[in-house]
Design a protein that fits this description.
The protein is α/β, with parallel strands linked by helices. It folds into 3 domains: 4-109, GTPase HflX, N-terminal domain (Rossmann fold, 3-Layer(aba) Sandwich); 121-203, no CATH class; 206-238, no CATH class. It has helices at residues 29-42, 66-78, 92-102, 109-120, 124-138, 170-201, 216-224, and strands at 4-5, 13-21, 45-54, 83-86, 105-108.
Length: 238
């Protein structure tokens, strides 16, 4: 498919979106890219352009084919994109190979969503869970890159652990993961105690469940005047 340029206001990050047009029974590739575009917007990035490649299965080394890699490289340069976002999860080796070939930062949908979570988590447990997820995502991506991670600038796909200068040494990350799991379990234990106290007091519990950006926060505010953040963005609240 030919690439499509999008006009956006200047932002810190300009993203070029890439998707493989594989068999998608639940969501056509263009709809999936539309959602990825909204995710990028939520993360604070402008979308410079997007492209797809129809294929039977992902390329082992670079997810997309060699010719498509060159096309993406040229398009990203022409559109002044500084990050390439893939719609599907990349393996650690695919991400490394793509960054080497494109000479640009490359992230996938998983990293993008974790980046959004890092900026939207406001509870103690939420922040711990996001840190845990980011470190577990980062750990297998250390091989062949570096033994320690310098302070990062808070760019898209790097917020969270980088801003607290968490070193990427495997041993230190595993120790940090273990501590985060213990801290989360402590919070859950306390929350379970509070839940039992509410049950004994006969306080009802109401849950609002739905996909992101389907109106739960708006409904909560209308019903209870809770003052919860309500925005027309994916994962505006967690």
């Amino acid at each position: 498919m030919a690439r499509t340029a999008r006009t956006t206001a200047p932002t810190a990050d300009r993203a070029y979106l890439v998707a493989a047009d594989l068999y998608r029974p639940l969501m056509p590739v263009e709809e999936s890219l539309d959602e990825l575009s909204e995710l990028a917007r939520t993360a604070g990035a402008g979308v410079a352009g997007r492209t797809t490649q129809r294929m039977d299965h992902p390329h082992v080394a670079t997810y997309i084919g060699k010719g498509k890699v060159e096309e993406v490289k040229q398009a990203a340069r022409e559109l002044d994109a500084n990050v390439v976002i893939f719609d599907d999860e990349l393996s650690p080796s695919q991400q490394r190979n793509l960054e080497r070939e494109l000479d640009l930062k490359v992230i996938d949908r998983t990293a993008l969503i974790l980046d959004i979570f890092a900026t939207r988590a406001h509870t103690a447990e939420g922040r711990l869970q996001v840190s845990l997820a980011q470190l577990e995502y980062l750990l297998p991506r250390l091989a062949g890159q570096w033994s320690h991670l310098e302070r990062m600038e808070g760019a898209i796909g790097t917020r969270g652990p980088g801003e607290t200068q968490i070193e990427t040494d495997r041993r230190l990350i595993r120790n940090r993961i273990s501590k985060l799991k213990r801290d989360i379990e402590d919070i859950r234990t306390r929350r379970s105690l509070y839940r039992r106290q509410r049950d004994r007091a006969g306080i009802p519990v109401v849950a609002l469940v739905g996909y992101t950006n389907s109106g739960q926060s708006t409904l909560m505010n209308a019903l209870s005047h809770a003052g919860v953040l309500s925005e027309d963005k994916l994962f505006a609240t967690l």
